[in-house]
Each structure stands twice: as structure tokens, then as C-alpha cells.
Amino acid sequence: MATLVLDNGAYTAKTGYSHQDVRVIPNCQFRSKTLRLKTFTANQLDEIKDPSGLFYILPFQKGYLVNWDVQRKVWDHLFGKEMMKVEFPDTSVIISEPLFNFSSIQESMNEILFEEYQFQSVLRINAGSLSAHHYFQTNPLELCCLVVDSGYSFTHITPYCRGTKMKEGICRINVGGKLLTNHLKEIISYRQLHVMDETHVINQVKEDVCYVSQDFYQDMATAQLKGEGNTLMRDYVLPDFSTIRKGFCKTPEDMLFSGKYKTGEQILRLTNERFAVPETLFHPSDIGIQEMGLPEAVVRSISTMPEEMQPHFYKNVVLSGGSCLFPGFRERLQRDVRALAPAEFPVSVLLPPNPVSYAWEGGKLLADNPDYDEMVVTREEYQENGHFICEEKFDV
């Protein structure tokens, strides 16, 4: 029987059969200003010639799946002939859901997967648990790990011991990729150009030019310098969707010879925004969110664990999720946790080659687990026992 792995994130869905490679597609629908009446779903985004002023219709709000109409349309597109060609009665699905998901959402998901799509069997699981499974499979000698999953809506820090989630140690910070993009939109709109409607473009700017500072005050001082002394300033050429399809960053050499700039290029000049926006993950109070930052949350999570296990967690901190892709993220987190952790414990923060699909790859490994059939709920079991059997079997 085929096993479909679907890491159903709030921003992207990572999907693929367990014997194939992953495909990452936007988990939402779009409407464009120019084609107001037409709705595009998931990877149909590539068909939009002018994605300026793109209007996102998201199935997730504040990290929880609330718009089932949009989610169904994305899944229909995903499971349909053009993409996965899913044969539902012969397919098992591993699907991710957020920590502390509401039981009403879980029940709706059970109904849709079993009754509408009629999958043969289902396993609902957290993305963090899939990441932990991936880590334990590739590091069989390790007993503990701490998964830092920094996604679109929030960042979760979850300790695992021998594959079991330690619920008392879970911490959540309400900062994720969406908040960072919105913050960058506000800064640019206040300082330079009104971009509040340009979520798609500014998200691209964030991914291309932002980084995590290793010395915030030093970088702030550099960003205030004039002329060549300001090594942090970057000029970003915005797309016009006729000659420039995708925005790009000017090289420092181009910026020295401003004669190289073409007429008609719309430029965003970015200085301290480049590192001040990702800094929110480390100091949410900078923008008025009264929560601890990531390093404090990691130390707080580990401090709730039994004392003899704590050194194992400090040396196995695993990063996953798209917000971990900022240059300097791993180094800064390692340095800050090292400063807060007890001196006798070694600290090691690990960034996988692709943190976005790390949880999905964990699902792929889980599908080959000899105990996999014991973990799932089959359609027959669901028809016989209803939601009760899912609550009993799924540790979410």
C-alpha cells in the first residue's frame, strides 16, 4: 500500500509519496489584482503573470486550520490527476497538525480524510514529532533531542526522549515567518514606499536580504554610517513583472558605481531592517510582544526536564521550519544558549541541510517503520469506533 506524507504547514504544504521526493507548494489560494475574478490554488501561483498586490486566502489563522473550504480546494488540487494522482482506498496518509490542536479541528480532519477522501488509513502527528523521528533515525545513539520548529505562525520548542514527547517542557513563542514579513512591510511602508498590499513581494525581500545579527549593537552602529563605511546597506530592485520577473539584490560593487543603475528600476534601500526584523525571534519585546526570546525559551524548556537528562538536550538542539533559514540563525542561537546554559554542559545546535522539509523526511522514514501499522487508524476502525479511536491512538 502506498503511503502519502503530507506536512500540512500554515504557509507551505510539503507533500510526496514515501518512495518519492518532496514537493513544496503554497498551502493557500490567491487572487490577483489584475485577474480579480479568478482564484488560483497552491502551485498555480506560477501562472499569475503579475503577482503584485496578490491577495492570499489562507486556510490557517493564528496557526490553526479554520478555513476548511480553502483547505479542501488545496487538497483537491494536491491529490488530483495533475499532481499526486492519489488512489484513496489503497493509500495511507501521514498528516501533520500543530501542537495543542483543538479537538473540533481534529474531528473535522478525521471526517474529511476518512469520509470524504476515504483514505485506507490515517496517522495524525505533530511536525516536531516527525523531525524528532528523523533525528533519532539518523543518530541512533542519541536518547534525547530538543526540536526548535520555527514556522509561519509561531515557534515551538519541544523536548523528546526516546521518541516520546515531553509535554511539560513545550514552550511556544508567538513569532513566526508571517509576523516577520508583516513587520518588514510596516517598516518599509513607514520609511520609503507603501507596500502593505505586497505580501508576496516583501516576503521575497525578507528571504533574500534579511539575516540574524551576531552583534546587534555593532551592526546598528555600522548601519548608521554614511558612504562606504556602511557595509550593511543593500539596494533591492523590486520586480515590475514585465522585464523583471523576480526582485534581486544589487551587489556592493554595483552600489559603489551608481551609474550602473538602469532608469525605471524601483529600488528599496535596506539597512538596519535586514537584521532588526529577524531579531524579533530573539527579542520579541523589541516590538511589544511580552514574551521571552528563543534562547531563553530553549533554556526554560530544558530546565523543566530531569537533571540527569539536561546535558543530552543541550547537545542535541535540532532546528526545523522555514524561519531557521536566515543566515546566522544557528550560530546566534548556539552562542546565546551557550551564554545561558550551565558552564559544564556542552551546547550543540544542528541545522539540517533543508529545515523546511526536515519534518516531511521524518514522515518518509516513519512510513518504513516496522510498527507503522500499529500507529495508524484504519478506515474500518474509524467506522466502528468514530473519533474515539483517533484520540486514543494519536499522541498530539
TrEMBL record:
InterPro entries: Actin, ATPase_NBD. Belongs to the actin family. ARP6 subfamily. It is found in: Cytoplasm, Cytoskeleton; Nucleus. This is Actin-related protein 6. Keywords: Cytoplasm, Cytoskeleton, Nucleus. GO terms for cellular component: cytoskeleton; nucleus. Pfam families: Actin. The keyword Transport does not apply. CDD domains: ASKHA_NBD_Arp6.
